[in-house]
Amino acid sequence: MLRNSVFVFFLIISFVSCDSNRVFDVYKPVSANGWHKDSIVSFKVSPPDSIQAYNLFVNLRNTNAYKFNNLFLIVEMVFPHGKTIKDTLEYRMADPSGKLLGEGYTDVKENKLWYKEQVVFNEAGEYTVNVQHAMRENGKVNGVINLDGVTDVGFRIEKPLNK
């Protein structure tokens, strides 16, 4: 009886954890000393087709050591034939009370941050996505050298939800 219950439990977990919209989802760790301002996290992506539209996300794992309410990122997409698109993006990372946003029950929060919507990869070949932080403290000219609290940076491509 117990053996069957355990089997059913794992079967249910496997169905619940399936993510049929995911096309690409990779995380890369940053230095334990903090995410250095010159450190670029790169992802090589070969999209499955050139017709389907996809939604793109930057994923981020952070701990309570992250002390900012927002996050500025520079995200660059390099196309197979050399074209480059570079965006400076701002994301809210905490609510007005200072409580960190994101999913997770421990001190590690996972944030799924919108990058681009309805993107069609119309060039065949490998794309490169580069992510770099661009944080600055209020009143200071120079950027934050080592951004504490960020543990992993990820990139995700998914099929849009059917409406």
UniProtKB/TrEMBL annotation:
Keywords: Lipoprotein
Presence of the UniProt keyword Lipoprotein in the record: yes
Highest taxon above the source species: Bacteria
UniProt xrefs under InterPro entries: Motility-assoc_lipoprot_GldH
NCBIfam families assigned: GldH_lipo (TIGR03511)
UniProt-recorded name of the protein: Gliding motility lipoprotein GldH
Organism, as annotated: Snuella sedimenti
Upper lineage: Bacteria, Pseudomonadati, Bacteroidota, Flavobacteriia, Flavobacteriales
